[in-house]
Amino acid sequence: MIYLDTAASYPLLPEVKSTLYRAFEQEFANSASSHLLGELINKKIDDVREKLADSIGAYSSEIIFTSGATESNNIAFKSMLLGGEISPEKKHIITTEIEHKCIFSICEYMKNQGYEITLIKPQKNGLICPNDIKKEIRPDTALVSVMHVNNELGTINPIGEIGDICVEKGVLFHSDAAQSYRKTEIDVDDMNVDIMSFSAHKIGGPKGIGAVYIRDLRHKMLLPVIHGAGQEQGIRGGTVAAPLIVGFGTAIEYFPKYYKNFEEMDYKGLLLKKLECERINFQVNGTEKVLPHCISLSLPEINVSVLLRENEQTICLAQGSACSSKEIEASHVLTSLGLTREQAQSTFRISFPLDLTNENIDTIVTAIKKAAY
Ligand SMILES: *Cc1c(COP(=O)(O)O)cnc(C)c1O
User: What's the pTM value of the predicted model, to 2 decimals?
Assistant: First the structure.
């Protein structure tokens, strides 16, 4: 099976797998316990906290472990805005039309809490224009939230430029970095980000673990996302998931090495060259500043549903993002780019695994060719 859906989830890295086995066997104590085993595990968790913090230019006291990027995004909106940190007069949020679905769901909740939401359209090339954000900032804007890398296009948004605008205007700035972390540089100070979301399973770590960065967390008043016994600075109750965190740490360490090797192979360039050779008409969606493992392809002369169906035993492909591909409606990201329903229907996302081969590319091109109308 050729797995082409790593933007939805990466397979575990081999190093992560062995870390997890060991951790589940040995790291069973509760990290809040004051005995030797508890303290040892607490130390391991703090080492990962430090490693994550170092990798984004933050302090470890600014990192909270969560169940994943969805929860981190919930904290960015609900805990930050409803906890008393931001003046209750400020009830305006700016985000974009191309965010992960969970952001829209959180925004629906915020609307019910009396917030007004402004959604920014991407440019034709898939990127969010910083000036479009600037124009919408008002005196009552509480939060700007723009994802770093888009999960359907692989496009890298100009987070640093948007951050500069938010600092200048004195508005909190959140970025969902689930797709970008460890694949491209992140520095929370250079980017002027106040809150950032991370997920382990997008970098070969286990599912069910992630983190949120919050600038100057110790001096902030946040609404707990889970009321509990004081874990994670009181914001996220529940016994800390030590084995998953240790596995996350191994992914943080090893993923970039694999990704760099993958990047050097330029499989995306190879795929496009072969499609050209075979005279297969295509259009790439999201054309500037795109990560090497992800591509959104429109193939007007290919019956994409036949392509997916005929190869379901050999190629694992998603038509849109994982969250929307089971629905019949067109991807919100593609329609936001101006694609018609028909164009969106002849589009799919390829996100490459780290162990891809040239033969795999040949198999994909052959399968595409066979599905021509
Ligand atoms: C996968 C993903 C999420 C959700 O992450 P979980 O850890 O599965 O909750 C959020 N945002 C983006 C951009 C993603 O790609």
Answer: 0.96
